[in-house]
Amino acid sequence: MAPENSSLDRRNFLRAAGTLAVGIPLGVTLASCASGGTGGGATGTKTKNNPFGVADSTTVDAVIFNGGYGVDYVSFAGSIFAKQHSGSKVKVSPSTQIASELQPRFVGGNPPDLIDNSGAQAIGFNSIRKQLEDLTEVINADNLEGTKIADTLYAGVTEPGTYDGKFVALNYVLTVYGVWYSASLFEKNGWTPPTTWDEALELGAQAKSAGKYLFVWGKEAATYYQTLAVDSAIKEGGQELRLALDNLKSGCWSQEPLQKVFTAMKKAIDSGYVKPGGAGTQFTAAQAQWSLDQQALLYPSGSWIENEMKKQTADGFQMTGIPELSLSDNGKYPKTAIRSAAGEPFCVPSSAKSSAGGKELLRIMLSKEAATNFAKTKLAPTIVKDTVPADGFGSTALVSQAKMLSDAGKDTFTFNFVDTYGMNQDQLVLWNTFLSGGSSVAQLTDGLQQITDKIANDDSIKKVTYK
Amino acid sequence: MSVAGPVGSAPAALGRAGAPSRGRGRGVRRWTVDRISLFVVFLGLPLALFLVFVIWPFLQAAFYSLTDWTGLEANYNLIGVGNFVKEFQDQNFTIALRNNLIFALVIPIVTIVIALAFASLITIGGPSRGPMRGIAGSSFYRVVSFFPYVIPAIVIGLIWAQIFDPSSGLLNQALIGLGLPYQAFAWLGEPAVTRWCLMFVVVWGFVGFYMVLFIAGIKGVPAETYEAARIDGCGRFRMATRVTLPLIVENVQTAYIYLGITALDLFVYTQALTPNGGPENTTLVIPQLILRYAFLQGQAGYASAMGVTMAVVTLGYAGLVFLLFRLIRRALGSER
Amino acid sequence: MSAVADGRRRVAKGDAAPAVMSHVVMAIWSLIVVVPFLWTVLSSFKTTREIFASPLSLPAEWQFSNYVTAWDDSGIGAAFLNTVLVVGSALVIVMILGAMCAYILARFQFIGRRFIYYLMLAGLTFPIFLAIVPLFFVLRNIGLLGQLPGLTITYVAFALPFTVFFLYSFFQTLPEEIAEAARVDGASEWRTFFQVMLPMARPGMASVAIFNFLGLWNQFVLPVALNNADPNNRLLSQVMARFASQAGYAVDFGALFAAVVITVVPVLVVYVVFQRQLQGSVSAGTLK
């Protein structure tokens, strides 16, 4: 063997040989790497304007999910950061493959300072939460305008990012889940937006006679209909139903309200109210069939939909959101209740080079200035209150979101199990089949229950208890 | 130098690998400085590289397959063969394994048969009198068929994903143009066809290359052989199966192994065409699962176990192909 | 085809049918190959709205801006050069190292020869995914993580088993007499290899190189996982995957098609210009 090469890794090799022989874990190399940097590198003095003690000339490394909202809103905060801290700058790396790009960096102990862990390729928080900073410090600090950040936020926004009492992910964007339609199209045809599944099915019949469909779906987003179904069921069955799902109870998918929603959906599918072919259509192309070609009347989605389809929306569309459909008039939640949850989870790894810099960037993003910029450019509210004016910067969708939020008042809810355990991939398969008309309600229920049970019964997966 | 039939000759050597090696006798010579330096550099350098960058990482991975490592933390516990047991209770895994095996069975055969057919058409489809000739314009067909080979697989996937789109894709639009009812047929969304669409794309990408490879092989066959066969009264089909095939069987074996290894992976193609595993998981492949478990769900130990299993399967596959071709050669040899 | 040799007229007649059939089959296949490309080029000049609304029609206005978007947003240009650099140098290195290794294994008898050979064979079957995290640390320990030379070395190492495997059998078939003659003439082992054996192995080298090129050019997993530190270092397949998912989220299919065209066209041009040489090195070039 050429000595110059074999010596490269000889230490590891010997170690491996030894450990393999005696059966002691051989990942010592890994262990020594990963435990390397704790506590976030050089720090400066902590002051009122620099609550986390960011050192001068820090370069903050931010990896941001490049999805519906892009990354420029982080760059915007980054430019403020550069002004606040002399010689410092923020390097924003857009990414859509968060997990495969960051996993080795996590194991290697050099993760970025700030991550927007979002999108189809996000890392399950359950598996990294131990390596993340508690962000309570950030919301207890003052914002740039001098107000304590916690006092400027909507209620309950820290909840989805809190795992067993540790607040590790700050979800920046306030997402309102709803069913979206074109107000102008409905007006022209004299249609009324539905509030219940029965009304939706009636509307479906009208759509069919007008040569249109009620719903459309795309293969990567088939589970938007799962979200719709679960939310509808929660409106009927209340927190009890939600907790059964979140805590992976056996038989949770057979709860009556869920079954009723599935049955209504099945009816819509069998009646030809759902545009066929979605299982082979890219989701943004499918969404364009709703927003551009207007082949379908309704689309269930989060409020990111307006920004996502900005370029591909018909002129004069007047995108408007309504609360997700109820099953009956006497559900546990009123018809105005909505699922609203903060999304785009930002987190700061403990072993980052400058975790102080990551926190500081978050603090700046939560300032009135940066949050208003986000609402204005993305037409979506952040978790910071009072950043959207009455005219919604001219966006009908944004206005309708504000209306949904105020109509709902305290009646908001959310659910977590899908994201917590990364179930979406497996569920997508079932939903694509179901929406294609290829499976019955019973088959769908069985499949979903199997996914839940598999995780519930796997001891190697750490569980989160929801209350 | 003449480049006559090089592709034909390289793998052709494989067939003779079993024959007594002519190099053997040299082992008795003395170890001189010249020789030692040759060994150190010629064997040491590549081997060191191979051990450090291939074997060592895989040894580590094999070790992780016996742990519950999440892939994101430094700690883990040894759990023995638990991951391997879990594997075969995991429906996703068994489905993906079955898919990979189907691909490994179908893709090489289909690609090779088509490529061979095309190569024969081009080389011996010409006039049957005078010297063996290909059809006119054969170089045009060769150039065109070869196109997909120079395009990265991910780009091939992107192009075909758009073509298969139910509403705005080329395929359905063309079928509608022909008056067929394909307004919303989801080629990549129907469990019955998606797998075939995926295989078609892979075959589409590879046929041209193997066709050129086989043409080279056929041209490496001395013209007299064909001449003799023709005088014996061989038709074109017989010529292809009885004369050409036996003579390029080593090329076919090489192609088979390479295609088989590709088909036992297929990660890039599935990522572009059916990133979620396809309808009812009909195109789910093991590498997609490895990605999902290791990177998204924090079960790197489990994912490593899948990788180890796949390595064993691939090894077994290669072994079987060798065995099969040894038998084929024996059968053909006795015929010749 | 049952044309028999003794019926002269029937043979002559029989010539036309197979030729026509061959042309028909090959023409259809050529269409199947070419039409997707043409459609991609056409779509690359359309707005996304047009792509959705009328997939087959000509663009109302030729959208060259798609190309500007694709070029600016994806970084294809740099990625192209990086890919050529990495694949090119990896190819050269792996061919040299592979030939040397195969030569020793094939033509010298020593202890451990079989073991090394089978180890290489096993390396051929390992799924790359498995090695990613450990590889990450190997590269980091030698300080080449996220750098093109690091990626190049990794490419070489992963292409080595295949190269050795096939050149091994090739070297075995080379006649001993010539090497013997060289040695009698007083040539050193080194000279024998470089001046006698290697030139004789050139045909085999050419074909293995072409296989390797395919494998390396298409490599996707290694760069995605090991080469994402510096955006300037990205390779083509990385850039395309990123751009595809970004264009998907931003619903800019026009730019996506344009990016595909930008990737494909230079390679096609190079291929068409050099196809004679390429085909030449793959085929005899005697029978036309």
What this model shows, in words?
- The complex is a heterotrimer of chains A (467), B (336) and C (288).
- The model of chain A is unreliable at 1-40 (pLDDT under 50).
- Helices cover 42% and strands 12% of the residues of chain A.
- Chain A is globular.
- In chain A, helix 9 runs parallel beside helix 11 and helix 18 (424-435) packs antiparallel against helix 19 (441-457).
- Chain A has 467 residues and is of the alpha/beta class.
- In chain A, strand 4 (162-163) and strand 5 form a beta hairpin.
- Chain A folds into 2 domains: 39-174 and 343-386, D-Maltodextrin-Binding Protein, domain 2 (3-Layer(aba) Sandwich), CATH 3.40.190.10; 176-340 and 413-457, Periplasmic binding protein-like II (D-Maltodextrin-Binding Protein, domain 2), CATH 3.40.190.
- In chain A, the strands form 2 sheets. In chain A, strands 1, 2, 3, 6, 7, 8, 9 and 10 form an 8-stranded mixed β-sheet that branches. In chain A, strands 4-5 form a two-stranded antiparallel sheet.
- By secondary structure, chain B is mainly alpha-helical.
- Helix content of chain B is 68%, strand content 0%.
- Chain B has helices at residues 6-15, 33-64, 82-89, 91-124, 138-146, 153-163, 170-177, 194-220, 223-231, 236-247, 249-263, 267-273, 286-296, 300-335.
- Chain C is built from 13 helices and no strands.
- The two termini of chain C are 23 Å apart.
- The relative contact order of chain C is 0.13.
- Chain C folds into 2 domains: 8-66; 76-233, MetI-like (MetI-like fold, Orthogonal Bundle).
- The radius of gyration of chain C is 25 Å and the shape is globular.
- In chain C, 76% of the residues lie in helices and 0% in strands.
Concise summary:
The complex is a heterotrimer of chains A (467), B (336) and C (288). Helix content of chain A is 42%, strand content 12%.
